[in-house]
Amino acid sequence: xxxxxxxxxxxxxxxxxxxxxxxxxxxxxxxxxxxxxxxxxxxxxxxxxxxxxxxxxxxxxxxxxxxxxxxxxxxxxxxxxxxxxxxxxxxxxxxxxxxxxxxxxxxxxxxxxxxxxxxxxxxxxxxxxxxxxxxxxxxxxxxxxxxxxxxxxxxxxxxxxxxxxxxxxxxxxxxxxxxxxxxxxx
Length: 186
What we know:
Blueprint: E1 30-32, H1 33-43, H2 53-62, E2 69-73, E3 76-82, H3 85-97, H4 102-117, H5 121-125, H6 129-146, E4 149-158, E5 164-170, E6 180-185
Parallel strand pairs: 4-6
Antiparallel strand pairs: 1-3, 2-3, 4-5
């Protein structure tokens, strides 16, 4: 009688850590593993131990960090991550530095991801929820002061190395009583 081969447990991806009703991440907003590691290197504190590909894969394997989705990208199947993943990677390293084990980090990181990207404005922009909320308050204040409804907040961040990033936060409004405009924070 044939025996069933043991099934490998499904590895969770970053999509598994997000609510099911979240809009899909735009393809243009996904980064490769190399790009992610470069983002971490550029943005983390100088006194923080560098994160290597081996670290990243190990954390994913243990479930302390969600894994990538695999998609066809630039002529090959690649591991792809959302633009905000560098913040989650940085959080793992900071928690390690504070003395937490990877087993202790896993639930804390999942809560961190849920708190910052679990729903609302941050879902579509890639920015942490509290940043989106502050920008939406700014948009609301602008609308009240100018008398013009805000369609979205468009933020461009220019890094010291000359690279830049753009974040667009849609503004959920009641039926517009004011003419529409965009707020461009540059």
